[in-house]
Amino acid sequence: MSKEITSRAQDYSQWYNDLILKSGLADYSAVRGCMVIKPYGFALWENMRDVLDKMFKDTGHVNAYFPLFVPKSLFEAEEKNAEGFAKECAVVTHYRLKADPNNKGKLIVDPEAKLEEELVVRPTSEAIIWNTYKTWIQSYRDLPILVNQWANVVRWEMRTRLFLRTAEFLWQEGHTAHATAEEAIVETKKMLDVYADFVENWMALPVVKGVKSPNERFAGAEDTYCIEALMQDGKALQAGTSHFLGQNFAKAFDVKFSDKENKLDYVWATSWGVSTRLIGALVMAHSDDNGLVLPPKIAPVQVVIVPIYRGEEQKQVIDAKVQELVKQLKALGITVKYDDSDNARPGWKFAEYELKGVPVRVALGPKDLENNVAEVARRDTKEKSSVSLDGFAQHIQQLLEDIQQNLFNRAKSYRDEHITPANTWDEFVQTLDTKGGFVAAHWDGTPETEEKIKELSKATIRCIPLNNTEEAGACILTGKPSSQRVLFARAY
Amino acid sequence: MSKEITSRAQDYSQWYNDLILKSGLADYSAVRGCMVIKPYGFALWENMRDVLDKMFKDTGHVNAYFPLFVPKSLFEAEEKNAEGFAKECAVVTHYRLKADPNNKGKLIVDPEAKLEEELVVRPTSEAIIWNTYKTWIQSYRDLPILVNQWANVVRWEMRTRLFLRTAEFLWQEGHTAHATAEEAIVETKKMLDVYADFVENWMALPVVKGVKSPNERFAGAEDTYCIEALMQDGKALQAGTSHFLGQNFAKAFDVKFSDKENKLDYVWATSWGVSTRLIGALVMAHSDDNGLVLPPKIAPVQVVIVPIYRGEEQKQVIDAKVQELVKQLKALGITVKYDDSDNARPGWKFAEYELKGVPVRVALGPKDLENNVAEVARRDTKEKSSVSLDGFAQHIQQLLEDIQQNLFNRAKSYRDEHITPANTWDEFVQTLDTKGGFVAAHWDGTPETEEKIKELSKATIRCIPLNNTEEAGACILTGKPSSQRVLFARAY
After folding, report:
1. CA B34, CA B162: separation in Å to the nearest integer?
2. Chain B neighbours among A 135-194 (CB < 8 Å)?
3. What ipTM score was computed for the predicted complex, to two decimals?
4. How many Cβ pairs within 8 Å bridge chains A and B?
5. Given this model, what pLDDT does residue A169 score?
6. Which among A66, A87, A168 is the nearest to B96, CB-wise?
7. Same domain assignment for residues A52 and A169
8. Are residues B346 and B241 in the same domain?
9. Is A117 within the bounds of a domain?
10. Of A346, A376, A405, the domain-final residue
11. In the listed set B378, B405, B432, which residue is the last one of a domain according to the structure?
12. Do A180 and A242 belong together in one domain?
């Protein structure tokens, strides 16, 4: 195999980068912290996006599109939100370049084209959207507003990683407006459930649903709900968040509505988002030292068929059979690719599709045809078997379902084995250092203690699980009383 | 009707704005020249995008995503392209805001967070993409690259119009790389055909396919092919362009490949795009003084059903029947909305859906039910008819096809009547002033004359039609010899 991949044991972080780059998901770009999503990576994102988009629409949401730029005066209106994002935002200050008089063929910023008011490239769109909702909402009849946007956003992160943390990323952001706090909270939780459903049942990645501690809340939110997943190196990854924004943005942008009794009140808000970061989670959760392992339900190619032949005559016989099989597979809604290109040998192709994480590989040679079978290899376990060509498509369909389920089960076992209770500080630190994963520990509930724990252990509170068990205990650091365990982890 | 629309006769331009705003397609925003695409407008764009996306994939293209920002040094690499867009680009110069020490709660640009190199917000992506292709292309085996991107771009236009010309807009941009000029030219023309197919057969808008004069070429292109449509006020609108870029970008970014004989050569390029501007074209081409008229094949809602009733008992009977009809319509792939909301009277709803351009409106009352009929109104001609509920869905399906065809025929008649030959300067100007539309006239082929004609008449050369008839004549302005007529028009 020409494309060497660092093993996980050797260097997990390099393994991840190798996978992303060599499988063709993404590339570095000439812009600091920004990446190029290559066709294979984008096809994966399209599949994820399409499923999510349908889920949003099925729960009553519609898409819209708001400006990329946020004028500084709007950006600063909701103070906590502004404070949270001001440190890392790209700012447009000019609207023209001009020829450099001292350097032929070069351009300089035209100082005469300075904007009166600077524009922030959206790091998130609450400000621009709530400034718009102000004109859309007068009465309770205008509510709820259930809008989602698919967009690019920019956060000037200092340390970036492909997919996991990039200066520009693609995401969706839902922004809803409601007449009551109760309704907004129901919406917040509903969308958390949609995310959990998607990540578990499509990405085959088990998650813990919970609520963030105040320190980890979205800037401007009253409450941030989240789903947390576990990667193979024992680090946690926040896979999606859903925020109850209270009336914070309504107040900042003066968005009021008259209720049925004609009384004026501020509107209640939620926002929720997932991003291309999910692709990073997918890669880290399932893949192995040979390459990606993609869940069948979102894989761009679910089945690849490779012919094994010598000479054109053999190939024609195989071609004819493959055409039949492809037709049968497609009829079951299976995405299949027949790779009969003659510029690579079968062994090279096998390695290439393993690297790309194609769930099922089928090899078909003259002897197979004689025996009316094909060799079928599943990517998750690497098991090979000889499968009859009678009822072949049905067999593959079942196999894809098995793989999907197996990936979930495997990730769930790993995750379940990596939720470890710790009752003393030593246990806590030792678990983080040797085993990793989530550590369930008592915490005294103060931001100061949380901050201190982070400083000492590099672990943060990932979430307070929903429907958490009440249990009296003592804070892992301060010994102060606590009524429940929360989940700590080192995280991406 | 509460939502008054200016008539076309009174003020065409105001009519257009009224339609966009009051039908709920889009809104102005707080950002100069940027608009908000509202849910109804975005649903229309989604339908258009999905059809185009399928057409691109059916012709072998894949999607990818490249950074929003172009470093200034890359932006200036292809000189003509840079010169063309430098005048109107948004420039990011800083990556942080900080608290204003003199103004509590306000933010200022942090002077210490100045970028070493300014970033241009992409007005088009040739530069960033060809800089990337450099690393993707070594040999002829890596070609062709057939990539498309759906993205937002920014051009700092001084005079903006909703959809037609906005500072930020959504579009797709195809960027392909080829081993030969011939292949690239075939691709350029193929994508022009895809655009013409889409605009004519989905948007019901006839176009003239042609090639631009040098003055109107895309900055950095060797040849710009275009499709030109005609609006109801006699002005032309460029609906899509496909560029043969020669080796200009390959040379600017040093992208070479080794051919089968191992000889190095620069790669050949095309790019092609259509944008949300198409929505403006759609509105201007088909709509009337009562509102939008949307072609059924891309309308977000194809059929709306409005119940006419008094009291809950009557409504229940209608509801039951409508459920049946909705099921039958959906089975034929028809998008149908049952508007049984009780907060508006039928007359108000009729006007509202007329405004929104829903192709077919069905009204159903107790008397209709007794007679086993429904009242069906088509939006394009406003004709009403009583239609039997037996075979109802099939009737509607046929009606939608008729409407689609009628819109195209109507626009085509108008367009054909508005291609007027002119043989003298007076004729030329008079046609533009009184009749509008395309004027077919001789031109001496020089940029200077084209520029002068534009100055004197405000008309530009829209295109030199493909497969144009050769005809000896004299330039409309200079009297110099010419071998063919070209199409002039005043344009959006």
Report:
1. 8
2. 135, 141, 147, 151-152, 154, 156, 168, 170
3. 0.97
4. 194
5. 98
6. A87
7. yes
8. no
9. no
10. A405
11. B405
12. yes
Residue A2 pLDDT > 60: no
Q: What sign does the CA torsion over B350, B353, B359, B364 have?
A: negative
Q: What is the CATH number of the domain that holds B239?
A: 3.30.930.10
User: Residues B175, B209: contact at Cβ < 8 Å?
Assistant: no
Domain count, chain A: 3
% chain B with pLDDT above 70: 100
Partners of residue A343 in chain B, C-beta under 8 Å = 141
**Domain co-membership, B388 together with B438:** no
Identify the pLDDT of residue A1: 44
Note whether A147 contacts B39, CB cutoff 8 Å.
yes
Residues B371 and B437 in one domain: no
Cβ–Cβ of A67/B131 closer than 8 Å?
Answer: no
Pair A336, A425 in one domain: no
- A57-92 per-position pLDDT tens digit: 999 999 999 999 999 999 999 999 999 999 999 999
Q: Is the pLDDT of residue B1 over 50?
A: no
Q: Could you tell me what percent of chain A has a pLDDT over 70?
A: 100
Looking at the structure, tell me whether residues A170 and A205 fall in a common domain.
yes
What average pLDDT does the segment A115-142 reach? 97
Q: How many whole angstroms separate alpha carbon A45 and alpha carbon A237? A: 18
Note whether residue B292 is domain-resident. no
Distance, in angstroms, between A445 CA and closest chain B CA?
29
- B94 contacts A64? CB cut-off 8 A: no
Domain residues for A388? 303-405
Regarding pTM above 0.95, the answer is yes
Is residue B3 over pLDDT 90? Answer: no
The reply to whether B365 and B429 lie within a common domain is no
Least Cα separation, residue B193 to chain A (angstroms): 24
Quote the minimal CA–CA distance from B368 to chain A in Å.
31
Residue of A nearest to B39 (CA): A64
Nearest CA to CA, how far is B366 from chain A (Å)? 29
The pLDDT assigned to B349 comes to 97
Whether residue B405 lies within 8 A of chain A, CB to CB, comes out as no
Whole-number pLDDT of residue B4: 87
Residue B2 scores a pLDDT above 60:
no
CA A55 vs. chain centroid, Å, equals: 15
